[in-house]
Amino acid sequence: MAKQRPLQFSLDRGSPVPLYFQLSQQLEAAIERGELAPGSLLGNEIELAGRLGLSRPTVRQAIQSLVDKGLLVRRRGVGTQVVHSQVKRPLELSSLYDDLESAGQQPATRVLHHAVEPAPAPVAAALGIAEGADVLRLERLRLAHGEPVAHLRNHLPVGLLDLDAETLGRTGLYRLLRQAGITLHSARQTIGARAATAEEGELLAEPEGAPLLTMERTTFDDTGRAVEFGSHLYRASRYAFDFQLLARS
C-alpha cells in the first residue's frame, strides 16, 4: 500500500471553528471525493502537524474524530489508514443503487430472496391490497466497494414487473421500474434506528447490538397506485441520510 500524496488544506486561524474540526472536515471531504482512497495511508501525526503548523494534539483530535466515525483506523506498525467513506444519501425519491453509483461507490447487489408470497397485514395495508394476496418479495444485500451497506426488503404487486433474480442483481429496482414504463411520482417514508440482532449483524458485518438505521417507504406512481413497499436496514457506521431544512415563513 503506497502512502498517499500530500493533500493541500486551507485552515482559517481567525475562524471561530476549531482548527481540529476544520482539518477533520477537509480530511472527510477528501475521503468522500476519493482523493484518499480506501486502504491508503494518511501519514503520521508529527509529519502532518509540522506541515500544517498545528500542534500534535490538534491533529490527533482531528484524526480521532474520523476514527470514531469509522472512516479511519489506526493499525500498529502500519499507521493511520483510510477505511472507507460514509455514504450520505439525500432525502429524495431515488434508489440506493443510483445514489451509490453517482457517488463512485461501486455498488453491487447480492440477491438473497426472490419469490411470490402471501402479503402480511402491514405489507397489504401499505400496498392497498387484501391481506394474503400474492406479492413479489425481494430481499437483497447492497454492497459498496465490496462492503455490505444495507439489507433491503421490498414487496411489489404481482404482475407489475417482469423481474428475475439475475437482472435484479445487476442494477437497482427503481431503474428497472422506470425502464418498464412506470413513472415514480412520490413516496411516504419513515426513518428510525435500532440495535442489530445477531443475524443482522452477521449479514451486515457489524457486531450484535450495533446501531442500524431503518427506513420504511411506500412508493406511488403518477396515477397514485402503490408500486412498492420497502423495509430497509442500513449500517449507521457506513451510511447517513442528508437533510436540507427550510424555515417556514
Automatic annotation (TrEMBL):
Reply yes or no: does the keyword DNA-binding apply: yes
Task: Extract the signal peptide range.
Answer: none
- Please give the CDD domains that the UniProt record associates with this protein: WHTH_GntR
What UniProt keywords are attached to this protein's entry?
DNA-binding, Transcription, Transcription regulation
What SMART domains does this protein's entry cite? HTH_GNTR, UTRA
All residue ranges annotated as the HTH gntR-type domain in the record: 17-85
Record bears the keyword Disulfide bond: no
Source organism, top-level taxon: Bacteria
InterPro entries assigned: Bact_HTH_transcr_reg, Chorismate_lyase_/UTRA_dom_sf, Tscrpt_reg_HTH_GntR, UTRA, WH-like_DNA-bd_sf, WH_DNA-bd_sf
What Gene3D superfamilies is this protein classified in? Chorismate lyase-like (3.40.1410.10), Winged helix-like DNA-binding domain superfamily/Winged helix DNA-binding domain (1.10.10.10)
PANTHER family per the record?
GNTR-FAMILY TRANSCRIPTIONAL REGULATOR (PTHR44846:SF17), MANNOSYL-D-GLYCERATE TRANSPORT/METABOLISM SYSTEM REPRESSOR MNGR-RELATED (PTHR44846)
Q: What is this protein called?
A: GntR family transcriptional regulator
Name its species: Streptomyces griseocarneus
